[in-house]
Structures are given as structure tokens and as C-alpha cells.
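Two records follow; treat each independently.
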Amino acid sequence: MNQPRIQKNILVVEDDEQSARFIQVLLQGSYTIHNASWAEAAWDILEHESIDLVLMDISLPGEENGLALTRRIRASLRFGGLPVIVVTAHAFPRDRENSLAAGCNEYISKPFERTQLLAAVQRQLS
């Protein structure tokens, strides 16, 4: 008897509605998507849902940007091992370095190819 496939849960932390919708369209059907547009909303989802991967924008409204939130995730005993992929319009080499130094597993700059995002997600979830 075949077991039903359990979908992985991905948290998309993105304040730009179009970008969040685009990522959701790319991933829906294969993954369960949770959306947050700022850091505290993302943290709330992390505490109440079983998240397997975070797609993180760097620029977020409020006091905490995506890199600060990533550092908070890394410092947490509960979430410290959670894979985080930065998906951002910040595309300079220093942005990549800062993202990886904050604890992100991978860095993707916008605009990105669909296959690039899917491959990164699959790498981090395998």
C-alpha cells in the first residue's frame, strides 16, 4: 500500500507581494507555502507551524531585516538547523558574503530562473 506523500512546509519571508506570489506559484503543488511579509510574522509562523525551509528576503519592513532574522534563527536551539535560502534583489558580491555570514545556506539574487530556485530548494530539503 502506498503511503501518501507528505509535503514539506516552506516559509516565504517576502514583503513584495508580487515576488511572494511568484514564488508561491513556482512551488505550489509540490510544497505547502506559508507567507510572512515581516520578521515578527515569520517568527510567529516558525513557532506555530512545522517549517522545513525558509526563503528569506533581505529587505523587510520593521526593525529586523532578513539577515537579522536569519541570525536569530541560527541562535535558536529550536530552529538553528533550519535551512535558509536568501532570495533577494541585493545582488552585489558583498550582499552574498553578508548573507552567508549571517548563516544562510544559499544565496539567490533576483531575478532568478525557475530552475535555479527549484534546484536550491531540493538541495536543502534532501
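The next record belongs to a different protein.
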Amino acid sequence: MKEIRILGIDFGVRRHGLAVSDPLGYTAQPAGTITRKGSDLGLSEIEGVVREHGVTRIVVGLPFHMDGRPGDHHDEVLAFCRALEERLGLPVETVDERLTTVQAERSLRAAGLTRGKRKRRVDQVAAQLILQAWLEGPGRERKQP
């Protein structure tokens, strides 16, 4: 099978959580966080991760309220996606991220992590959930080379 790498991003005002798929595109693993400084979107750091892992596609969580209305920072995330596409020349897709941070927090709490350790890891676990949801989404056939 052809190797692919997909980067998942949990966009945040202070931090972006990152996750990367395995080379065959079946599973997502946490890949760290990027701390934002002011209005800097962290694009150069993301570009470094893209190069390091040979990423060919990016998936970003898009916030929605439970009733389907656009969530906080919805437009900012869409602008971030456009900036990623322009800078990196890679396809960028979005996936509904409802409840991913809640799920990430619950799984870290269930693992027995202290509050401080959960805080440091929640963004990358949320990115892992976002990417895994995309990987398991409809129409994600793995094509033989």
C-alpha cells in the first residue's frame, strides 16, 4: 500500500494540538502541541511538522455548538485553514469537533493523570480524536498502489 501521512490539528487560541496518522492512514497518534504567541498562528512550526512527517493532507477540527450553529472561533478556524493551504500548498479539510475536548479530558482523567498533566496533553489528544474521526469517516477507502 502507498504510504500517506495526515496531520490533525485541534485549533486553539493559546495552543494547537497536533496528531499524525500512521504511514498507512489507519490510526492517529498524538504529536505534541504548539503554543501560540500573540497573533502568530504557528504556521512555521506546523510547516516543520509537515516536513518532518512527510504530511500530504491536513485535517482541522471545526467548532460547532450542539444545535449545529457555528461555534466559537468558527470563522477564525476557517481563516486558519486558508492560511495553511496558501503557505503549505496541501489540501486542508475540516471535521466537526463537537465534544472532542470533553472526550479527551475524560480519557485522560480515566487514565489517572493529574490535572497538570491533563492540561499539557488535552489538546493533542483532542487532535488525535479529530484525526481518527476523519480517518474512519465515510469514503476513506485505502487504495492499493
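Discussion point: The two ends are 6 Å apart (CA to CA). How would you locate this feature using only the C-alpha cell line?
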